[in-house]
Write a structure and sequence with these properties.
266 residues; 16 helices; elongated
């Protein structure tokens, strides 16, 4: 049963709405409400979404349909939705209860969803979200949190990245952390890349990180037979090594000269 009359619906449209309210899918109800909102029975269509739809459908209805009861839709998201659903509602629906959505993300969300909440939602509680990503985040989620969210504890995030269970993402995240996060501990991150990485990441680390130990990275790639590197990359890697050795030789020469009797103070 509908709850209002629909002077702007044609008989065919009214019949279609009646069918949707009786047997239609949640998406049918969403689409009808959005297309015919001036005459559609929004609350009845919303009730259909709440009855047969997902939390993601509730997010869509709340965001796209004028006259939606956003509070009722949010309740379903907060009780049945995933971390992604709660994130979407907080980020996209005007008037969302940010604290309640954040609590849902903290309770059921992945490390990536926690990061994205901190990054995209105004009024997110960054310290609380950081504490949770340190508990459940993957190496990649931890890197993204450190590189994208302002005001975070870089040292704590890096320490956690280097202690999570090693996987294919950890050494890659370590490379990106070294490249993009100010105050990163390059030596510690390079050690992770050397222990777990492949020739491509040895090369990238040597190429992109100013204070990298190119000697150690080149030796590691050589030990793996430079697998995966093109001829141009191998040549460039050799050039990086030559430049690194030249700079070290100059530094050693300068150091020796500075230690000679009568040498001017540095």
């Amino acid at each position: 049963m509908t709850t209002q009359t629909f002077p702007t619906l044609t008989p065919e449209q009214a019949a279609e709405q009646a069918r949707i309210l009786q047997e239609g899918t949640s998406w049918d109800a969403c689409q009808f409400a959005a297309h015919f909102e001036s005459g559609a029975d929004i609350l009845a269509l919303q009730a259909r979404v709440l009855a047969v739809g997902t939390a993601d459908d509730c997010c869509w209805f709340a965001r796209c349909v004028r006259g939606a009861d956003r509070q009722a839709l949010q309740t379903k998201v907060l009780t049945e939705g995933t971390g992604s659903d709660a994130l979407k509602f907080a980020a996209e629906v005007p008037g969302a209860d940010i604290a309640a959505c954040q609590a849902r993300v903290l309770a059921v969300g992945t490390g990536d969803e926690i990061f994205r909440f901190a990054w995209t939602v105004s009024d997110a509680d960054i310290p609380v979200l950081q504490a949770r990503v340190l508990e459940v985040g993957t190496a990649w989620a931890i890197y993204m949190f450190a590189s994208k969210v302002p005001g975070v504890d870089i040292s704590a995030l890096q320490t956690r990245l280097l202690s999570v269970e090693p996987d294919l993402d950890r050494y890659k995240a370590a490379y990106w952390f070294a490249k993009n996060v100010p105050t990163a501990d390059i030596q510690a991150l390079q050690a992770c890349v050397l222990a777990e990485g492949d020739c491509d990441h040895f090369y990238q680390f040597a190429r992109d990180i100013t204070s990298a130990d190119v000697e150690a990275l080149h030796a590691a790639a050589q030990a793996q037979g430079f697998v995966g590197l093109t001829d141009n990359q191998r040549t460039r890697f050799g050039q990086l090594l030559a430049g690194y050795r030249e700079l070290n030789a100059l530094a050693d020469e300068w150091q020796a000269q500075s230690e000679q009797p009568g040498a001017p103070a540095a």
